[in-house]
Amino acid sequence: MARLFYMIGKSSTGKDTIYREVISRTDLDLNPLVMYTTRPIRKGETDGKEYYFVDENVLNELEKEGRVIEKRAYHTIHGIWTYFTVDDEHADLNRKDYLAIGTLESYAQIRNYYGEKLVVPVYIQVEDGLRLERALKREKQQPVPKYEELCRRFLADQADYAEEKLAKAGIDRRFSNDKDIMSCVEEVAAFIRAGQKK
Ligand SMILES: Nc1ncnc2c1ncn2[C@@H]1O[C@H](COP(=O)(O)OP(=O)(O)OP(=O)(O)O)[C@@H](O)[C@H]1O
């Protein structure tokens, strides 16, 4: 049976980094399920890789066509950034295994859309102080660091990933990325491999 391994976690827990490592493991044969966003592209990102970077008009068109599975809008200090998943020609969930990154909320909606058996959550966590340090270091490397946005996201994450919400969504397994990134990658890869055999 095909599966969608859905990676979630607060900002700067290492999801993108772990995602890149895990998806490159040819033995796992995972396909990317790339989401869409209206947020501006960051330095080092590629359209169609981390996200499809589109504008509001494209989002409105896709919604009219009934192809938006889930969407979430963030009221940032730079305007509204919408992240969304589209039932498009890239998703062949009947035959292939996929790896995606999303939020706890989008996970719940995707699971409702595709079903519990198909969507497997992979929750990444990092101790908050360490996570804030990593977020700041990453932001400093941007041409125009957006520190207010970093703080907003940090605080929003505390509410979005509250323990009761994790419990309600049925997240019982956690992958810690407090230490060396590769040990977390190995743990996630082993979990996916075991899930593929079930
Ligand atoms: N184990 C680790 N040790 C040290 N630094 C790490 C580790 N894992 C990730 N990082 C660094 O932490 C920063 C955040 O990682 P990354 O961008 O992958 O997080 P993310 O969860 O995808 O964040 P966001 O959701 O905000 O996009 C990056 O600069 C990354 O290089």
UniProtKB/TrEMBL annotation:
SUPFAM superfamilies: P-loop containing nucleoside triphosphate hydrolases. GO terms for molecular function: kinase activity. Keywords: Kinase, Transferase. SMART domains: GuKc. The keyword Transferase applies. Pfam families: Guanylate_kin. Residues 2-193 form the Guanylate kinase-like domain. InterPro entries: GK/Ca_channel_bsu, Guanylate_kin-like_dom, Guanylate_kinase_CS, P-loop_NTPase. The keyword Kinase applies. This is Guanylate kinase. It comes from Jingyaoa shaoxingensis.
